[in-house]
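Quick one, T. Sequence first:
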Amino acid sequence: MLEQLLDHLATAGAQHIAPLASSTVTDWGRTLQRTYLGWSERHRRRPRLWEMAFGSPSTVMQDNVRALLNADADVDALVCAPDGAAAAVLPVIRAAGRTIGRDLLLASCVDSTALAHPPITAIDLRPRDAGDSGARLLFDILSGEAPPGTVRTQAIGLIERASTRRA
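Structure tokens:
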């Protein structure tokens, strides 16, 4: 889904996409970074990966975005991987004189109700469906209806909102 999000940003005109990514201490962090770097290579774009520690508090997220925007003024799209990061960095983006949806597109890798207002594009991981599916899989394994090691995929989606539509 990250590739679909990156394609969406590129279609909206973003040339310099920078992800604020969690470190590679988790599989999720490694997967997001690997996906972004692969996408950047295939699309012949210079990677602008900005990594921070997994589980960083909002103040650290804000400091990282401030540093990123100061270090690379060409960034015209920001993808926030950590849950809550997109909402947390809004004041920093505004203080930098950037306008979301106009000169900076903003998206999140984790959707939440906090991203509906202001409307920020996000990947919907469908956590309730994932929990339900995981519980059903566990039950199926324990009851013998599915062999150990069974893998089931969970559909996720992209919710496009105003933050990634050029005003």
